[in-house]
Amino acid sequence: MSERDAVAMSERAAVLDVRNLRVAFRSGRASTTVVDGVGLRIEPGQCLALVGESGSGKSVTARSILGLAGDGARVSADRLRVGSHDVLTLGNRQLRAMRGADVGLVLQDALVSLDPLRTVGREIADALRLHTRLTPSERSARVLQVLAEVGVPEPHLRARQRSGELSGGLRQRALIASAIALEPSLLIADEPTTALDTTVQEQILRLLERLKSEGTGILLISHDLAVVSRIADTIAVMTDGRIVEQGPAAQVLGDPQHDYTRRLIRAVPAGRPRGTRLAPTPSTLVPTSPTAPASKGPEPLESDAIPAVSVLSTGFVHLAAAGRTVALEARGLSKSYRGPDASRRLVVDDVSFVLERGRTLGLVGESGSGKTTTARLALGLTAPDAGTLTLGGAPWSILRERLRRPERRRIGAIYQDPLGSFDPRWNVREILADALTSGRGASGVGGSVGGRAALARSIAGLLDSVGLASALADRRPLHLSGGQRQRVAIARALAPDPEILVCDEPVSALDVSVQAQVLDLLDELQRERGLSYLFISHDLGVVQHMSDTVAVMFDGRIVETGPSADVFARPAHEYTRRLLEAAPRLR
Amino acid sequence: MTALHAATAVRAPRRRRAAGRALRWAATRVAGAVFVLWAVATLIFFGIRLIPGDPAEAILGGPGSRATPEALAQARAEFGLDQPLFTQYLHELGRLATGDFGTSYALKVPVGQVILDGLGSTLILTVVSLAVAWLFAIALALWATRGGRVASAVSTVLEIVAAAVPNFWLGTILILLFSVGLGWLPAISTPGIPGLVLPVLTLAIPLAGFLGQLMRESVLNALDAPFTVSARARGESETGVRLIHALRHAALPAISLSGWAFGSLISGAVVVETVFARPGLGRTLLSAVLIRDVPVVIGVVMVVALVYIVVTIATDLADRFADPRLRQKGGDR
Amino acid sequence: MSGSAGAPLLPSPVGGERRPGAGGGERGPGLREPGGRASGARRILGHLHSTEIVGALVLLLLLVAALAPSLLTATDPLGIAPADAFTPPSPGHWFGTDESGRDIFTRVVYGARSSLLIGVAATGIGLVLAVILGSLAGLGPRGVDFGVNRLLEVLFAFPGLLLALLFITIFGPGVATSTIAVGLATAPGYARIIRSEIRSIRGSGYIEAATVLGRSPAQIFRRHILPNVAAGLFALATLGIGQAIVWAAALSFLGLGAVPPAAEWGAMLSAGRTYISVAWWLTFFPGAFVVLAAASATVLGRSLQRRNRER
């Protein structure tokens, strides 16, 4: 066999072959290149993972392959082949014939990626209706078959339900079923597990793995290296529209060549000991233009301007000084809510914990486990049905609101969605000024000239302590990046000089590298100020990295609690073990 | 122990629970309707007592009629005006509950008869207008979402037409154009289809602008939604995406507002029936208001309230039919 | 009363709730990568900008007409000149003359005052009532909210102008009663908007954040709820003026408000209908000015709403 034949063979074998793909969007007269010279190749039964952060161009790449880049897009490539189709030369009708039949697409959240008004059965049958001449009854038979294939129990019942009536795992399976109903040789999965709980994510990954073993080529798009490392044969790391590194998974993860890849890997908190930095030291960060507002779309790469922050080499000095006093203690907390059909649902069930001063208590669990209600109880925003909370040994949950209010400054909060927690009329300065004056009666902002100057100094100090340039004070949060917003939220929480911060999924909405920066910041602040954190997250890796003590929540109860190292090394409860097994990690 | 098993376990009684929910929903709605009707009747009854002057005098043709004291006393007795207020109120409620609206002061015939004479014509006018407005709106929404400068200009114009062009002027302009100018259609609404065209257009055009604008926005939202990306990736054509997915989502807000729209059409009928000299409930109401024929006003308003409530319940029902998500939640919106 | 009249009550269909870049560095597929729709949005925004200017200019002109009509015309709006009756629009009489030879242009200019006055007064009455009802329901305990909601439901059972007609039946026709009637008839719609606005602000993250900071309910009301509702209220009022002008003109048209020979747009239109087959200008111009006034108020109100949302 000549070399040329071999090349021809391999070319015929590839289910996806992309060379030098470029995508640019026109807006007015200007044109922005969002994908720049991307090359990808997937053979049957192979999985290529395209990894990058938001705005890196990975989703546009995926859509260009389907010919769905959008109206304003200019797509060009030296080669863009799906199986035997040359995508760039296909007309609309031929493209439609290709989509669904030769390549399937799975998006992030099936709740919105399947039409919420139609049954999943009809959604899956649509693919068959469009590409085959099956009769309706043959179609519905095939629908049930595909649903069974992707592991949906009782497919005849599920097929008649809508995405909103199915659990997260089931509807994601249904979405996958709709993409593979015609057994396409290529499956593009765009963040297929991002919205899912850890254990469900594991199931979906296993399903993708099985499809791969059955010969489907998979293009897996994700922001999460750990998820990807589970099934990818090849990893391509993308940033700013370019692929900066591509190679066998083990090689890319084990011996990353490019600086950006190294940073990404380093930013993964799972398995990184407490107190180690996740992001590069601030001085090596190149600040991007601070004027690019978030409204222009996702930024190429989140890198907030951070003035040098002194890293305390002394470690946990405050801890030693503070001894082991209790900052917040919960005893036998219970809380139930009335459901829509008048039945009471126990959301928090006999929860007890101790948060020691200067330490972090990690609360980990999947959605619906009662984490957020626990946070609201800790903040005194809702009263427990049973049990008590004490703040520094003094009563807290049983206080009447009028008596609790003056004490509120001692316990602050940061949320998953910082934007929603800011008054939309206010800029950063006003937000911080409000927080600084909150504990001091109704006097409002700055009475005297001296008071005003002091306030301005405090605001600048706060911004500095969270690593934001004081020039940002005049911006509205809407025009800040996600990471900057969370920093402002942290600054606001710090303003009344609290002892405790309740952090409810503070980094879940952030890109990995930004998440790393925010986690580092929280770590530094804890050391500098001796803060105690009640740190809530669904992400085991984040919790493990941040916590001294961990409490695992399931179904409203704490099923296991103990020193972080112990729990993660030797989980005692079956649920903890399952959670740990399911948690993606770099391998 | 997993959530999955739990879900399977509770599925059996699900159907029964769904039926229970539907029943509870229906009961709440009917009770609400009865309450509203009672409150409307009460409000009107006591509101009418605020009218300055002697109702008996009004019955006999107003202060100008110089009725004799004997005639006044007789009228009072005849219409029960000599009874204590609360007795009158209970009487009134009892009569209204049995569908007896009393006798018109001016026409001296039962109000029920007066209403029946006008109701059919007005219902035809409003129902046809609503249907025409819906057709226009769907066409507009589908067309105006094709994108581009023209479409966005159209949407701005729609918005303005819907909000700012009053029926009385639109009707007049249509008469100027099609009756006075072109002579195609009658200026006075004669029985039959040709006589219906201009009044229907007068009512339907602004409403179509409003509904179309609403639907345009939700078509755009739906075309932006991930599920349409999924559909396209499945090989669905643009037309298919619009017809199968987007249109249904776009219809939801328009369906919800159709009850309101029907109410505004009935109220608009007052103007349109006047402009086109078309017999109907609206004109009956207007002339009753002008001469203060109180029983007729009460009767018409009560009937309109009843029709409005029925239509609102019907649209809610249609809403639940079109959007299965509503059926899972509790009764209230 | 026009099928349209309630339209501005409802949340703006245009522009949508799409907050630009809500979540700068969020994860997940970049559904909206650079380019694409952003350019479209800017075009719509730019497009509106010019209509905004036109709307503001028209309103300004009408305001001049209302405050100092003699600046725009030297003729007497009630001056009769039988010899000039039914003059079509011409250089001497821009909008023509009516059956008594009165200059339509002059009468339209003078009509601006009563129309704007009624519009502003009726909107004021409607909004004051609505603010009271809406804040009772939005801020009060559950029982009060329930009660107000039932009351609103009852009022909604009088669709469109029916409530106004009922009010006029009781208190008799006239400019004052029709103004109050329009105010009453618009109040329930506004009240419902204000209530849901307050409710949604109360449920928002920044109220919770303020509570965590230790703000008292009174402070939260003053610092967050009031200013955020007020911004929306201003836009609502602008929209409402347009609507009230249309409704008030409709009542005059029906003979329940201003009465001829008063220079009021609705009344002029109504009077001109008798001569519709011989003198189209009698009905066209007064109506056109109702549309102009209502349209410019609507355009301005809508863009105010949009700006509130986009801040």
From TrEMBL, chain B:
Compartment(s) of residence: Cell membrane
Matches recorded under InterPro entries: BPD_transp_1_N (IPR045621), MetI-like (IPR000515), MetI-like_sf (IPR035906)
Membrane topology: Multi-pass membrane protein
Pfam families from the UniProt entry: BPD_transp_1, BPD_transp_1_N
Domain spans labelled ABC transmembrane type-1: 119-319
Keyword hit for Iron: no
Coarse class of the protein's main subcellular location: membrane
Sorted UniProt keywords: Cell membrane, Membrane, Transmembrane, Transmembrane helix, Transport
Residue ranges the record marks as coiled coil: none
GO molecular function (one): dipeptide transmembrane transporter activity
Family: Belongs to the binding-protein-dependent transport system permease family.
Family annotation (PANTHER family): DIPEPTIDE TRANSPORT SYSTEM PERMEASE PROTEIN DPPB-RELATED
Official protein name in the record: ABC transporter permease
Organism for this UniProt entry: Subtercola boreus
